Fold this protein.
Amino acid sequence: MFEAAELGRKVSREDFDAMAPQLRTELLDLQQRLRAADFPVIIVFAGVDGAGKNETVNLLNEWMDPRWIVTRAYGPPSDEERERPHYWRYWRDLPPKGKIGLFLSSWYHHPFVGCAMGDISVAEMEEELERVVHFEKTLADDGALILKFWMHLSKKEQKKRLKKLEEDPLTAWQVSDTDWKHTKLYDKFVAAAERLIMHSSKGHALWHIVEGADSRYRTSVVLNTVRDAIAKHLAAREVADKIAAELKKPAEQAKGPKPVALANQPSILSSLDMTKSIAPDDYVRALQEQRGRLFHLHRKAKDRGISTVLVFEGWDAAGKGGTIRRLTNAANARNYQVIPIAAPTEEERAQHYLWRFWRHLSRAGRVTIFDRSWYGRVLVERVEGFASDDAWQRAYNEIIDFENQLVEAGTVLCKFWLHITPEEQLARFQLRGEIEYKKWKLTEEDWRNREKWGAYEAAVNDMVEKTSTTIAPWTLVEANNKPYARIKALTTVGDALETALRNRG
Amino acid sequence: MFEAAELGRKVSREDFDAMAPQLRTELLDLQQRLRAADFPVIIVFAGVDGAGKNETVNLLNEWMDPRWIVTRAYGPPSDEERERPHYWRYWRDLPPKGKIGLFLSSWYHHPFVGCAMGDISVAEMEEELERVVHFEKTLADDGALILKFWMHLSKKEQKKRLKKLEEDPLTAWQVSDTDWKHTKLYDKFVAAAERLIMHSSKGHALWHIVEGADSRYRTSVVLNTVRDAIAKHLAAREVADKIAAELKKPAEQAKGPKPVALANQPSILSSLDMTKSIAPDDYVRALQEQRGRLFHLHRKAKDRGISTVLVFEGWDAAGKGGTIRRLTNAANARNYQVIPIAAPTEEERAQHYLWRFWRHLSRAGRVTIFDRSWYGRVLVERVEGFASDDAWQRAYNEIIDFENQLVEAGTVLCKFWLHITPEEQLARFQLRGEIEYKKWKLTEEDWRNREKWGAYEAAVNDMVEKTSTTIAPWTLVEANNKPYARIKALTTVGDALETALRNRG
């Protein structure tokens, strides 16, 4: 695989100097155009030690405008990072739309070095790479331009270069004992690299193998590739925008009847027994009981650093707020956070839609309650046409992957759909209009959403079907009777915590 | 001081139940009104152990809508927190406008417990309280409503209550060995509390001492105080907004002539020798030299966890970008971040204006370069009238306090004003219009700003006069000659790093 990167290719100083001014102007110009574009550029550097990763990153910062570049390199995770899923630190560092992110020792570091050093098996490396591929695909699908450079050196060149780096006082710091240790394992590194590139070079995020021995050659290849890729992506997005605008009108016309037809199909929701209820006395007793139980369980989970994430979705007026309040009553306020999800902020809009949920993940042992959630993508955004068909359809897998990462990190995850019948909703809307301090809760939008009941029901059905997994199942809550719904939710959370505490005893 | 809080005041269950529904409705209603208001509410709970701090915070979350409440309690700082100034963690947790933040074990914890336990002297406590007072004043000046509750118990009551808490399995976890240890030091705690309250109860952030023995009494006092304070603050802000609108027009008319008059006064800037320059050959040599020097110094600072913050202010076209690029060339891109400051984002606008600078402070050993900075408040915001006279005038002290905290945390801080003459600026503007890839840099705004040269000069003069402190001096850079300016900036940063490394040898 690396033969072509050991040919000793070079660029003379004259050629380089002749090319440099124009290339630099073009890069700066593209950076300006990028600032107004609706996608970020993510550039990953990896490869063998001494092949010029650092120098190239420095040069990109030097040639381009460093104000619109974010450079990130990763060492051992901080304690705040360790207490969240592994990818949390990459998500929080993602460049917003219009900026360029340069990543060193990134998400490739562990699978690559781990496998080369024999700390993880080839199979484990490949498993890790699947997550990598999914991560990059998720970002690319959202429009991100992803470029990956694998900087290569032959065995001989590597030794030569490390020596040279060591001799120059300006660069000696770059060479560590680890680097020399790695050279001894050169063959293993190259074998791991080959597998890594094979498994993670995808259409949306190709690896570019760069011969790293000659700095001018290396620089020329990287800078030219960056320039061409940004220019191409800018042009492609413009075309895509035009096509999307073109397609919009007929698509909207076609949208009307579909959901109505679906509304007449039996759905998962229609199978629920909506007469379920609990008597007032039983409710008071059960509430006390569950509250006490949850209090203890939350406490234990806090002590053992087990985080909880609760997701509440449901019809307007289904009682999400009331149920959440019963849950927060059963925990110490120090220890939970309720995150109401409404329209994203400006900073959130400049990122992948999942970014704003990643950012709210709490430190170990905390309870995070989402009042509406990432499922908005496949519910309101789908029904109202805020997300393209493509976007909400691929969201199912993106969500499953996100939740898998939560659960793998040890988080207890419960997802609730609070279901009421249209008749019950109408009664509650009318009641809200009558009670003074609840009036604010009832908006024009609620009435509008109600008209689309059928479309929403179809969306809920698909959502449950596609995202109720073994490790992150949906709990459908019959919520026509509020007490019943609350007890069911509290009991479910209690059971989940108990299981988690037992399994990790 | 606490006699009035040891009277054994009580509220009967009947009275409480009679009051509760209305109070709760009022609180929920106020919370809705608050959501649309332009200030946050910050509520601090402190006091002796067992006096009901936790319960009250839980109750506030229970009675009000937890979605618009942020509850924060602090333990030992995380490593990410330890690597920044002490108050970083409080700044990052501040509620945005329209929300309520409840703070436990907050900025009062260390001065209070530290002094009571004898870990710090009374004088040290008072010094820490000065920072507290300044912090709260800064937020209150920006419109925040600050409420502080000191929960008190008599010695006898405290013992009784801790015992009772321990007996109830639902609350036993709240009582730690530390609590019992603290009771033995009751008198010392009370003495420290008295001093603390005396020093930190200010008009903008009064302490309310609450007798904590009876939960219904305690709850009634806190909830009523919260309700009244929010209602009053909402009303006061409405009046203030009206007055501000009323005053606006004549104020704008009066604004005109003032800066022009000031422009004719000699200013700090006019004392600069603007003919300073460096010959091309000397420049190349000096640049190489300073670059090498900085590279080593940055490296050492990184290893020793010494952070650097560089601030660049200056006239349009004074060469900030070029100077910054020479500095970033002298560091490893892994290790610095250039933060361009333009209009604040939506999330930033919902916070105190300093919040967005606090959030950008990097972990230990990193270099953060601000291309424009918090000084915008006293420059562009002053001259353009974006900030009220009150707001920019008090900003000088807020800035000094912010910078003091940086320096106390061990950060190397350099502030540069890049100065050019109006003639030089004109020449550079004209040149920019001619060079293709620099055209984007020249905007209508640049020409407009130029017309206000006098007003800006007066503002710069005041800024330097008021914020050039011993620990954070301004470096005025004669920048008509770009090479000279760059070398001066690089040398200044190098000297500052060298001094810091030596002093902390």
Notes: Residues 342 and 470 of chain A are 28 Å apart (CA to CA). Chain A touches chain B through 52 residues (CB under 8 Å).
